[in-house]
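Attaching the record inline, Q. Sequence:
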Amino acid sequence: QVQVVESGGGSVQAGESLRLSCVVSRNIFATDAMAWYRQIPGKERELVAQIYASGTTTYADSVRGRFTISRDGAKNTAYLQMNSLTSQDSAVYYCQVRVQRSRERRFETYWGQGTQVTVSS
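Structure, as predicted:
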């Protein structure tokens, strides 16, 4: 089974930085897009950033210029470097991946359990 595990969350003060990691376990035939979402209780989940197999990236307006999404050479790990954090960035951050488990299977979407990010001042 495909496992998606986020890490790197924690509590920081406004203006500080944090780096999140998303590791996709098990053998995978191919990886398509990888993305980071965040959600505050009572609000809908928001797309923060995504990176495609080509390397193309997109960002939410609220984080553009402060956050950077990247992936390793094997394309099985995604990172989210978060700089100049503010209280509005506080949320549970989720990793979403699109992977093909084998050549005979279609691409499927998988989610991690999320990691809490709390920013205070």
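The first strand starts at residue 4 and ends at 7. The chain has a mean pLDDT of 94.

More tomorrow.
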